[in-house]
Amino acid sequence: MSQATVESQAVKRDFYGLFINGETVESESGRTMRTVNPATGEVLAEVAKASTADADRAVAAARDAFENGKWKKYPVGRRAKVLHKIADIMRSRFNEIVELEILDTGKSLSAAQGQVSQAIENFEFYAGAIVGHRGTVNNVPGQFHNYTEKEPLGVCAQIIPWNYPLMMASWKVAPAIAVGCSIVVKPASLTPLTAILLGEICTEAGVPAGVVNIVPGSGSEIGNYLVEHEDVDKVAFTGSTPIGKEIMGSASETLKRVTLELGGKSPNIVFADADLEAAVDGSLFGIFYNTGQSCEARSRLYIHEDIYDEFMAKFVEKTKQLKLGNPLDKGTHIGSIIDQNQLNVIDAYVQSAIEEGAEVITGGKPASVEGFEGGYWYEPTIIGQVTQDMKVVKEEIFGPVVVVSTFKDEKEVIKLANDTEYGLGSSIWSTNDGRIKRVANAIRAGIVMVNCPFSAFPGTPFGGYKQSGFGRELCIETLDLYTETKSILSYYGSRPLNPFGM
Length: 502
Ligand code: NAD
Prior knowledge:
Blueprint: E1 15-16, E2 18-20, E3 23-25, E4 32-37, E5 42-48, H1 52-68, H2 76-92, H3 94-105, H4 109-129, E6 137-138, E7 144-152, E8 155-159, H5 165-179, E9 182-186, H6 193-205, E10 212-214, H7 219-228, E11 234-238, H8 241-252, E12 257-261, E13 267-270, H9 276-288, E14 300-304, H10 308-321, H11 340-355, E15 359-362, E16 381-384, H12 391-394, E17 401-407, H13 410-417, E18 427-429, H14 433-442, E19 449-450, E20 469-470, H15 478-481, E21 483-491
Parallel strand pairs: 1-5, 8-9, 8-11, 9-10, 11-12, 13-14, 13-18, 14-17, 16-17, 18-19
Antiparallel strand pairs: 2-3, 4-5, 6-7, 7-21, 12-20, 15-16
Helix pairs in contact: 1-7, 2-4, 2-5, 2-6, 3-4, 4-5, 9-10
Nicotinamide-adenine-dinucleotide binds at residues 159-164, 168, 186, 188-189, 219-220, 223-224, 227, 238-240, 243, 246-247, 261-264, 295, 396, 398, 424, 464, 468-469.
């Protein structure tokens, strides 16, 4: 490793088990799967592969902890203290967790550091938020009294994607356990390691056995099994829109509560009055952060025709300067793609654009990275001469590929921005306050980023309109998605009630 490389904390184990009822266990069948470092293509570790019998064990442990355990009965301040402890342990092991996340995903050091930091802050955020999460006292006629209680929903299955393994887990685990639920987490089979670590850390911090269970395994096998499981009360899913639709269908059989954080094709609008330098740098980050493998990636770039040439000269030049390399190096901007399959998907989209008449302005093919020849790498790619009906404009690519076109005025660009089945993120670059307000109001998306490339911090609601899903995570409202509201109506009148007049 070069001098600029993060110092190795030697965290790797050869084998990672399932985490059920507070213990690391093997799968009942003894089955394992391999997780690979996508930057090198080398096997990273062997991981126990959960079967449906293991999912049953995890659900039973979660159910028992929920019905008979003490976690949901703890005073709220005590649960908050444990959440702080989880954050403290994670912070004390920060470099180790960052390194493990990089090895499992191929993401760059700066991306992993930011995401692990946010995961820690999420536990701190919910430790605070839970203290203020309470029911209401409601207006009823004088001799009555009505109040509500927020009760934990029960056993929640939480299904996580591979692009932000630990951060997405924290978005789900922290609010669920904060309110007193028990959970069964199914990480993506490509990236299970940091979620397993999180389960262990929760237990070390004082979360009782059975409250947090982690079962890596196949989505179609145990993911789907958990969605259909009669003893699971809620499914919180982050992943692709097609799987989200399947999950919504399967969950309807048992009328489970469902939260869906799905895909996106977010627009990035640069007006002629934008601060050009900020817009170029922000647009670069908006698409190429996390190697474009982001649900909120601003993958459709709309530039006002008056500044197109000037913007593109800078944007293309900076894109060419992005450094692909050792993900553990501080100077690396772009990490690897998650696997060969995703690399093929990205390349097929680029080829489809060429076949449909678009122009590859830069990039457009798998990249070769010295010292990492066995890994999965793709060049940061800009595609021009696109039309709204092309696949690369309509569909989520989930890679470092942005499509660029021009617009003439506000009305036209609002129409273009909303011309999608998705509605997750969007960016506006402008110095005109009135225009910013009008466009922000008109965009049909859950998140509008104004002169800012970042989509969220702990506390800001994150979630989609349209086919990007529903439910908001990362915010106070999320606590409502893990609770039921119970209404208690009492009568305090001096005379007995006799509503039938008998
Ligand atoms: P995916 O849908 O393939 O898988 C997500 C998870 O679901 C994995 O754990 C997988 O094993 C599991 N799964 C697969 N089939 C299942 C089934 N039939 N039943 C239950 N579970 C099943 O998605 P991915 O490729 O891991 O992640 C990329 C996708 O996630 C992109 O579409 C991206 O936009 C989306 N995403 C959305 C957000 C958001 O907050 N909106 C955040 C990150 C990623």
